[in-house]
Specification:
The protein is mainly alpha-helical. It has 27 helices and seven strands.
């Protein structure tokens, strides 16, 4: 019996599909090989250089990486602690990478962050291959890779330990496989795209699939085979996506819930509730919680508005709307080439309107342009919490679309369309770079004026050359020089801001791009941080020593995963994160916590103590007298799971270390039959 190739099982045998393409990449010349080597080695050197300046990066994910370096089950599920009490509130692909690196090389800043930087090199290589293959221009591929590497949000997040880097690498791989499959109607390559997006889903859920409509529509439009075959290929790719992501969902269902960590962010300890709720449609519709009831001040108090916020947190300066992508921190992170990329999308569609349906340049433009439009619109209408760095998801689309636009006007540079189009791209990118740089006027003032002057001069020269009288005076070589200089000026602002991003130390949940920003004294903001952060990565030495000296499976229990993560990194002990990231997760219940105490699984319970300023009092409202969460002489203990906090305070005595109340749960609990009950029982 003759073996049938796997791909032959799907009906993609079409004469068109097997013909050589009319325009294929010619063998690379010496300067092209040198350029690619310089691009990849330069990206690696820039992104790896002094990468440990970021320390633990986001401590929340660093704690998960530390846990994964110590326990394989923690790697598998993405647990916050090696005791596997609760996971981070994202799927585990990013933790797989960092956890395995920690297992191989030992946990540390370098073992955690170096893989992220290497992912940037891989993403740049994929960008080069996609654009060079579509345009048959290795120079265009080099521009696409360079534009991606020089995007500030890329320089920020591919040296950080959030899951966005691996998600975007997988999205880029999905786009590469789709474009490769679209050139030859290859079901195999399209299924590989489905696998890549399946794992992108396991990196950051629905955000990893936001590119899916663009890629599916591109293949449906341009693949050189019948409509029936295109639909069958897409169905096969969908099946590959479901299998490559669904196995983990099935694993969480089949693995006994009592033998695995709680899936943080879900209300019922199921993966799909996390996907469709807290990290899915609830975030998109603005119905997700942004920090839980820990942020709710007690009655009679109100937190003042923050002053001097730079837009690094949720949403930047803008709420939902088209302006969101161009303002505040979001504008600095992603928008440098965004207007030019949108213009390039239109220019390419117009320029290629007479080409065959299977035109590879238009296929790439559809993939990148639709990716940019679909994801961009989703970000502009998202009503829930949105960090500026989420826009990393459209970084490859912006870079790829810009490079394809430049390649198209370069191809037609001897015509009026190419010259005017090039002038429009140069002017758009240069003027927008000036606008962005002007928002930070104290940093390198000559740069913005230099870039805008070059862009204006180049644009004027190209427009003049587009008219017959000017064309006679301007040689073709001069037009080429003008386009090259204008493109370099167009990406100059983005490159400079990305370069300024690299040496800065980035930590916490909302890192920002660009040069260091001056800090101004703001007592109100300092108090806000104390209320909302608790510990903020700094742990009192005395408290750290107490936790290190414990012998129970978990050294302590505390509200919120971010606080538990800080304690774990400082003490290298497992800590129970009550309520998960937002303090709203229904775990542990009071009964479960009491069982943990009774069976000696946890030693300490920690409660934050905050001195609320009198200026936060609302004068016409009572200060919550008689309520369990009312401040005691201005001191307040915020807690998400108040039932646990009240039970602990009623049965155990506290010692105070800094602004933390420490309850020893191994001491005798209150019992009315005891001759000398603890002091807490006298309340």
């Amino acid at each position: 019996m003759t073996a049938i190739p796997a791909e032959a099982a799907l009906p993609d045998a079409n004469p068109i599909a097997t013909r050589p393409e009319p325009g294929e990449l010619s063998p690379a010349r010496l300067w092209e090989r040198a350029g690619l080597a310089a691009l990849l080695l330069g990206t690696a050197a820039a992104y790896l250089w002094h990468i440990t300046v970021n320390g633990m990066g986001n401590g929340f994910y660093a704690a998960a990486a530390w846990s994964g370096a110590r326990d394989w089950k923690a790697v598998l599920f993405g647990s916050l602690d090696p005791g596997n009490f609760i996971t981070v509130d994202k799927p585990p692909v990013s933790q797989w990478v960092m956890g395995v690196s920690g297992q191989l090389f030992g946990f540390g800043s370098a073992s955690m962050l170096v893989p992220q930087a290497l992912m940037a090199v891989a993403a740049v290589a994929l960008m080069y291959a996609m654009v060079a293959g579509a345009t048959t221009s290795r120079a265009a591929g080099l521009l696409a890779g360079a534009a991606l590497a020089a995007t500030p949000v890329v320089a920020l997040m591919f040296r950080f330990n959030n899951p966005d880097a691996v998600m975007v690498l997988l999205m880029t791989a999905g786009a590469y496989c789709t474009l490769r499959s679209a050139r030859q109607a290859s079901a195999r390559w399209l299924m590989l795209a489905g696998v890549a997006l399946g794992f992108a889903f396991l990196a950051k859920m629905l955000e990893g699939l936001m590119v899916l409509p663009a890629l599916a529509l591109t293949y449906l439009i341009v693949a050189p085979t019948s409509v029936r075959n295109r639909l069958l290929h897409l169905s096969a790719a969908a099946a590959a996506l479901v299998v490559s992501s669904g196995w983990y969902v099935l694993l969480t269902v089949l693995w006994p819930a009592t033998a695995r960590p709680y899936l943080a962010g879900s209300t019922d300890n199921t993966f799909m509730d996390l996907v469709l709720g807290y990290n899915g449609f609830a975030r998109f519709l603005g119905q997700n919680h942004h920090g839980g009831n820990r942020f709710a001040l007690p009655p009679g108090y109100e937190m003042p508005a923050s002053g001097g916020h730079t837009g690094g947190g949720f949403g930047g300066f803008s709420g939902p709307g088209p302006a969101r992508l161009f303002t505040g921190e979001i504008g600095f992170e992603i928008s440098w080439l965004l207007p030019a990329a949108l213009l390039a999308f239109a220019l390419v569609l117009v320029s290629r309107r007479g080409m065959p349906r299977t035109d590879p340049v238009r296929a790439a433009a559809l993939a990148f342009g639709l990716w940019l439009v679909v994801d961009g619109v989703a970000f502009t209408v998202m009503r829930g919490g949105m960090h500026a760095y989420y826009t990393l998801a459209i970084g490859p689309a912006v870079a790829g679309m810009f490079a394809i636009g430049v390649a198209e006007v370069w191809r037609r540079r001897s015509e009026a369309f190419g010259r005017v189009g090039a002038a429009a791209l140069v002017l758009t990118s240069g003027l927008w770079a000036f606008v962005l740089l002007n928002r930070n006027p104290g940093w390198l003032p000559p740069l913005r004026w230099t870039l805008v002057a070059i862009s204006l001069a180049v644009a004027l020269g190209l427009v003049a050359a587009a008219f017959p009288a000017g064309a006679r005076r301007v040689r073709a070589r001069a037009v080429s020089v003008l386009v090259a200089v204008g493109v370099l000026a167009g990406i100059g602002g983005s490159t400079a801001y990305a370069a300024a991003t690299l040496p800065q130390a980035h930590t916490g949940g909302s890192p920002t791009v660009g040069p260091a920003r001056p800090t101004t004294a703001d007592p109100s903001s300092d108090m806000r941080r104390e209320v909302t952060a608790f510990l903020d990565g700094e742990v009192e030495p005395q408290l750290a020593t107490l936790l290190r000296d414990t012998s129970t499976p978990w050294s302590a229990a505390v509200d919120r995963s971010s606080v538990a993560a800080s304690l774990e990194l400082a003490t290298h002990t497992s800590v129970v994160a009550i309520g998960g990231f937002t303090s709203d997760d229904p775990v542990p219940t009071l009964d479960e916590f009491q069982t943990m105490v009774r069976t000696h699984q946890v030693t300490y319970y920690l409660a934050q103590e905050v001195r609320l300023p009198d200026s936060w009092r609302v004068r016409d409202q009572p200060a919550g007298a008689g309520r369990s969460d009312a401040p005691d002489n201005g001191w307040w203990r915020p807690a998400g799971h108040k039932d646990i906090a009240e039970w602990v305070s009623a049965h155990y005595s506290a010692v105070h270390i800094g602004n933390v109340a420490v309850y020893d749960l191994t001491a005798p609990a209150c019992d009315s039959t005891q001759p000398s009950p603890p002091a807490a029982c006298a309340k």
